[in-house]
Amino acid sequence: MNPCSVTILLLCIIAFFVAMMCSFTFVLLLCPFIAVYERVMRRHKKQRGPSDAAAEDAAAGGAPSGRSLKARAMSLAAGFERYYLYRVSKTPSHLVRDFIYGKVCLMSLGKGAVIYYGAEVRAPYNICVGEGSVIGDRAVLDGRNGLRIGRNVNVSSNASFWTEQHDHDDPLFRCHTRVRTGITVGDRAWIGPNTVILPNVTVGEGAVVAAGAVVTRDVEPFAIVAGIPARKISERSRDLKYEFNGEFLPFL
Fold it and tell me: What predicted TM-score, i.e. pTM, was given to this entire model?
């Protein structure tokens, strides 16, 4: 390599490490504030009553509940949390991301669980990822009404789990904050790429959701479903013994 090429390579390496350190610094310096916010929100969710729904809608991106100082503060805090979690998802270290998700944001991560880069996470304190499960890059994990992913589940890239949605008949276009509409995924299920799992759905043990499917109702154990809306097209073998060991690609 000529001296010019070596210089360019060294500058690229230095720039890479500087960018990494800036990302780590931002994420780690602000984690105490996020830790407090997540604990307050978890307690608020447990104590929530119907009268709190409109205020939560504003914080969650629903219709505005007025221009009170409290509503503005909730919206500001929720927006910053989303930005912080975005920065966490882009941090090139599984160790750092797992620490933030698990210890700071109160996500329940089983042994060997892997979450790849770029995941969009909402209400992490309401998300449980079981042992050995793998969440692909750019997945959407919406825990606002509870998201439970079992053991040894394979969630492919760009899969989306939505536990809350707007009510199209509501005069103010609010979200379904008054109704619990969580999602449960059984052990060894396989959620294909670019799939969408909608609220109040259970995907059974060992089930397969084919690429691009939109799941609007429960999927029975070991069924293979495909299409929009997803319908059963076949069955999977029930003799499943594999267990993921927690290995992952570094940086991603």
Answer: 0.84
